[in-house]
Amino acid sequence: MATVALKDVTKVFPDGTIAVDNVNLDVGDGEFMVLLGPSGCGKSTVLRMVAGLEDPTSGAIVLDGELANDLAPRDRKIAMVFQDFALYPHMTVGDNIGFPLRLSGVDAEPRSERVADVASALGIGDVLGRRPSQLSGGQRQRVAMGRAIVRRPGLFLMDEPLSNLDSGLRAELRAEISGLTRELGVTTLYVTHDQAEALTMADRVAIMRRGVLQDVGTPTQVYGRPATLYVAAFLGAPRMNLLEAQVYVHLDRHIALHMGEQTLYLPWNDIRARAVAHYHGERIVVGMRAEALVPVPVDTEGDVLRGRIRYLEHHGHESLAFLDIGAYAVIVDDIGGTPPEVAGPRGLRRFGNLVKRVAGRGGEQEL
Ligand code: ATP
User: Fold this and answer.
1) How, if at all, do strands 187-192 and 32-36 pair?
2) In testing the pocket of ligand 1, which one of 41, 195, 210, 234 has its CB within 8 Å of the most ligand atoms?
């Protein structure tokens, strides 16, 4: 069993860089937690502090319920996989995988049995006699994984382990890694800046920005109900539409969202109306995923925005339409078979993913 908890963890480097700013995070036993964020946001520093390769400036690293700040890396029962697999070039695959066992004094026979088991689980049983230079990138990555799991660690720490591979192999290996860690029941903390990797592999995703933890939740939660505007804009391609609106709760029990030149009317019994009702008189930001916007005929009444198609972008399996809706441009997924040469007004119905107040009580949120 292995759990990880970071409590008020801050890391300030000697040059004054605040790499990690008061982060609190719990990783459950057997959980696959992905740390996601842009380059330089502090993900690797978090991982290195959990590994014991970096000391927190303040706060607690708790492993299995015990304060681990002063625990040496080798006493933390963790295995780390980095992006530059760092295999020993002069050793065979089998010796590379078995190396941690040799270090801890496991005899040759049980060692080669364990190596064979691990190699076969990773699909590299037939290359045990080769050297790393005789392997493909994907095979080398599997060897690195094998070397990490051979000691049956309670906790896996992985720092962008797939970033040096081509995209096809990355997709294949991400399924393998998440499958394998689940099979082994190993708690995993996985760092990446690739949101597709994060959303497909994680049980939960922790999103960081400039050292600060922005949101933690299942992929569905952080995608559908982002905690901050930053997360709303960061996750998803195309980017979520974010429109400012002024909220008015009308006496006849409907809600009007004034957005630039347009007003969106929501009936009171609409779940989205209730979500914004308590912002009466305030300016909020409404978040709408492209796929949540549905084109409807121009004469449709009700909760409809009107826009003019500026251009269409074809992506093979889908088309994105970029529309002007007065003060704003929005992106709509699949405009409903409209041929590219037709640019006309469209009504847009239905929006989801309501986001946050920007102004008023909460103050402006910086994107
Ligand atoms: P990447 O995805 O590029 O690896 P990251 O999110 O993992 O980025 P970190 O490597 O944790 O980011 O770095 C966080 C911040 O701390 C960055 O601004 C980085 O420049 C800084 N930093 C990292 N190591 C040191 C160090 N030893 N001394 C000073 N600053 C550092």
Assistant:
1) parallel
2) 41
